[in-house]
Each structure stands twice: as structure tokens, then as C-alpha cells.
Known about the structure:
By secondary structure, chain A is α/β, with parallel strands linked by helices. Helix content of chain A is 37%, strand content 19%.
Amino acid sequence: MTIRVPIVENILNANDHLAEQNRGRIDSAGVFSINIMASPGAGKTSLIEQTLPRLKDKLRVAVVDGDIATSIDADRAANAGAQAAIQVNTGGDCHLDAVMLRGALEQLDLTQFDLLIVENVGNLVCPASFKLGTHKSILIASIPEGDDKPYKYPGMYRGVDALVINKIDLLPYVPFKMDYFKHGVEVLNPGVLTFPLSAKTGEGMDAWVDWLIGQVKAM
Amino acid sequence: MTIRVPIVENILNANDHLAEQNRGRIDSAGVFSINIMASPGAGKTSLIEQTLPRLKDKLRVAVVDGDIATSIDADRAANAGAQAAIQVNTGGDCHLDAVMLRGALEQLDLTQFDLLIVENVGNLVCPASFKLGTHKSILIASIPEGDDKPYKYPGMYRGVDALVINKIDLLPYVPFKMDYFKHGVEVLNPGVLTFPLSAKTGEGMDAWVDWLIGQVKAM
């Protein structure tokens, strides 16, 4: 295993350098950008689908969708009203990296947008190690995943700027102790901004959308 | 990126070699072994918790639990009746590998068991690439993850011997088109053995447990 450590460190250093370049490009265009991460099926695409119509006529949004395979997510984002939606297939990799985002940014005239939403590959481990250059990292937890996820995936919960707790409409049907979950979050990431919501019913969506609009205005 | 390919191939070749050694050790002891993989929160530990009491006085079971951090899962397996439960913390890695399983096997007298259950790290990408040496690979899909997962994680769905579809009790509360899901599975893994069940309500558990017992008897 020892031989892997310097190789991995070099890859991560190179990635961080490219992430800084991505940030420079995004900042120059005056765009606010987020990197949405989550377990498979926590609702990244559903959240984006429900967010976009609420931003209509307010913000011009570009979405970059990362996936192992298929363009299902970019198609959904485009149908939901994204002014641009680019699919990045990672070819097997369990995360987006800064090179992949750079490739996507080169296909966009960033000055035409106010908000850039990057949807990462569904994974609670790999994406935490690879900075992309976005302004804020968002993690979506979902109620049916269970209340122990902060304890089991601390690297992911520690590194994010905001936490969306999705599928709160399922709380009556699954065992989920909110206090236990929130305690785990608080230990790893004290005071992290939290948005409990249901992308399905719309409950809680306003607070999330208002925060996004506020961040764009503050750029 | 080019430099990464041979390195990754070498690691995978070395892993496969160790996986064969693990299989030899497991076969010599006459134990039937499974590698359970799934997205975080699909219900790997819950399925094991509900399976163990049903095997009581029938099979002697050892559980090896892989996780990034914590020993929550091994504790749950031990409480549910596993004769031995070993936690392997991967130290950040998004999957178990054959070296990690070998380390766990060295702590067990395999001749004392009939069934070895390996619970992999919650991830739909990384574990698919790393053989462990177990007899069968089991994937747990869960209803609230959504019906598009076979399309988005083809590597995982293609490589498994059986598919558990967990949380069928949530079908009335979430959008999930079973036909669309099953079509995706069938394209990738024609005729794969499927167990729709709810670890929560117990529905469908008998078929799963009967299959496990049958596999052990056939050893």
C-alpha cells in the first residue's frame, strides 16, 4: 500500500492547482457556483429539477452533470429549464475532478450565467477528496438512507458548506432519529447551514432557493 | 491521466491474485461466502440484522464489516447473533479489497463457521472493481434510491450474482417504476436472481434466507 500514497498525493495536488484555475475562470465571469454531492439516489437531480423552475426569470443557470454513464441527469436539467446542461461521463471514476470540470467549462460562455450548478457522481467517499473550484460544497442527505451516515462518512460531512436533508416527507415511514443524525453532523461540522426539505412535495424548498439567490446577489 | 492506467491495472491484478488466495482459504474450510454491496443506506446492515436471527441454530455465521470509520455495523451484527463480527476500517478507501479481507480472515478460525457474510463499504462504484474472493456478489438496491440506478451504475449491476430489492414497503410513497428498473437490470445482467423484500417488515425475507441456506448446503 505504501507506494500508493505519494501517487495519490501528487494527483490531489495537481487537482487542487487546476481547481484554483477553475475558480479564477468562474470568478472572472461573476458566476456563483456550487458542487452538489450525495449518495446515489439521495435526490441530487430531483433537487435541481425542483430548483430550476423556481429560479425562472430570476437567474440564468448552467448545470454540469457528472455520472459514470448516461446523460439522464443533463436531460432532466435541460427539461427543467437550465439554460445550458452539460453531461460529463467519468468513464468509471467515482467522482468528478477539476480536469473534468475544466472540460465542461470550456464548452460554456460563463458570462451568460449567474449560477453554475455542478452535480457530482453519486458517492459519499470519493468526491470529498477532489476539489473542483466551485464556491460552495453542498451535501444532500436523505431520510431513507438512515441517521448514521455522518458517523460512517465523516470526511464528506466534515467538508461541506451546507447540508440539504431531503425526503423529509418519508419521516413517518422509516426509522430515522433526527437528534442522533444532527448530533453526528454537529460534531463534524459545527453550525453548518442546514435545509430540511422535500424535493417531492416542495416543503422547505423556498429557504433553499432564497439562499441560492442571496449567494448569487452577494457575488 | 495516462500514467494512472498501468498503476491501477497492477493494483487490480495484485488484488485478484490475493482474492484467489482468500477463496482457497474459504473453500478449504467449507464455508459459503457472500460479498454484499450497495449504496450508503440501502440497508446492508439492516438486511444482515434481519437475516441472522432467521439462521439461528441452523448456520454458524461470521460477518466482516467494511466501513470508512466506526464499528457501528459490526456491533449491530454481533447483537443480531453473528458468532463472530469483525470490523475493517478502510482508512478512507471507498471499498474493501482482498488484502483487507485477508486481514480479517486471519482473525477467524473459518472451520467454525458455515457462512461468511462480508459487508462492503457503501458505494455503487468502487467495490465493483475489487474482487475479494467470496463465492457470490450480492447487490442491494433500495426503492427510495430511484428506478434509474441500473442505468447510472452499470458496472455494479452487471457484475453481481444476485440482486436484493430492499424497502419494498416504501413503494406507495416514492416514485419508482418497477418495469423501468427491471428492464435496466435485465439488459445488464440477464436472468439475475432477484429478491424483492423489506428488511423492515420482513416481507420477502424467507425467499432470501432459504436461498442462503440452500447455497450453504450445496457447498
